[in-house]
From TrEMBL:
<dbReference type="Pfam" id="PF13490">
    <property type="entry name" value="zf-HC2"/>
</dbReference>
<dbReference type="InterPro" id="IPR041916">
    <property type="entry name" value="Anti_sigma_zinc_sf"/>
</dbReference>
<keyword id="KW-0472">Membrane</keyword>
<keyword id="KW-0804">Transcription</keyword>
<protein>
    <submittedName>
        <fullName>Zf-HC2 domain-containing protein</fullName>
    </submittedName>
</protein>
<keyword id="KW-0812">Transmembrane</keyword>
<dbReference type="InterPro" id="IPR027383">
    <property type="entry name" value="Znf_put"/>
</dbReference>
<keyword id="KW-1133">Transmembrane helix</keyword>
<keyword id="KW-0805">Transcription regulation</keyword>
<feature type="domain" description="Putative zinc-finger">
    <location>
        <begin position="10"/>
        <end position="41"/>
    </location>
</feature>
<feature type="transmembrane region" description="Helical">
    <location>
        <begin position="102"/>
        <end position="123"/>
    </location>
</feature>
Length: 240
């Protein structure tokens, strides 16, 4: 008999093994087989509740009107033997589950690291030089300057200038503006040229928070000016 035929023959005896219906020779053969066959142990685990279920059925000892059902609590194999086999099988399942969980966590960690790396590339506009760590990147130095009001104006506030590759971005936070809108923010270069960097309308309370930009490089900016629609200067913030 081949190994496969032997396996199939013993597999068919599992029901009788649980119900104590095998002779001593078949029980010993199946005992030895179960220690080395995971498939049969899995089937044994699936069938393990059957004897108890049969005992609980109404008239279980006379099903079908035939002979009493032989489910002997003292028949071989012993309950300890079955439980020992099932415990071994469940321990193997637990070990396999634990290994699979560790592998899953490791894969998840790789995905999270990759996502973090992609996110870093996005927030740095993908311009991180090869071989350069984030700590080695130059920090952006912001320039903050305060407005001085022009004669007859009560304008107060600040301007924050951020260097960019293409020029400079500006964030205005001003209040106590007077005059007629629209109001303009102008950047004046050290060479005397000016560029309009922002424009906005009347705010009702004389306060505004506005963002703008200029093509001037940060090192070329001399001052930031706020004017009304007639060109009257309301305040100047010098950039040193």
């Amino acid at each position: 008999m081949s190994d496969l035929e032997e396996h199939d023959a013993l597999h068919r005896l599992l029901g009788g093994y649980l119900l104590g219906g095998l002779d001593e020779a078949d029980t010993d053969r199946l005992d030895e087989h179960l220690h080395d066959c995971a498939d049969c142990r899995a089937e044994l685990d699936r069938l393990a509740p059957v004897p108890e279920m049969l005992q609980r059925l109404p008239d279980a000892r006379h099903l079908g009107g035939g002979a009493p059902l032989a489910v002997s609590p003292t028949a071989r194999p012993t309950q300890q033997n079955i439980e020992g086999l099932l415990s071994r099988m469940r321990a193997e399942k637990t070990k396999e589950t634990r290994v699979n969980r560790v592998r899953w966590l490791a894969a998840a960690a790789v995905v999270m690291i990759a996502a973090a790396a992609i996110g870093y590339g996005i927030f740095t506009n993908g311009r991180v030089p090869q071989g350069t760590t984030p700590e080695a990147l130059p920090s952006v130095e912001l320039v903050t300057t305060q407005f001085e009001s022009a004669p007859g104006s009560g304008l107060t506030g600040s301007a924050v200038l951020t260097p960019k590759e293409w020029g400079v971005a500006i964030a205005l936070d001003v209040s106590r503006m007077s005059g007629n809108g629209p109001f303009l923010c102008l950047m004046r270069s050290k060479g005397g040229g000016t560029e309009q960097s922002a424009v906005w309308g009347d705010t009702g309370n004389g306060s505004a928070k506005v963002n703008g930009a200029s093509s001037f490089k940060i090192g070329d900016v001399d001052a930031v000016l706020i004017t009304d629609r007639d060109g009257k200067v309301l305040g100047t913030a010098s950039v040193t």
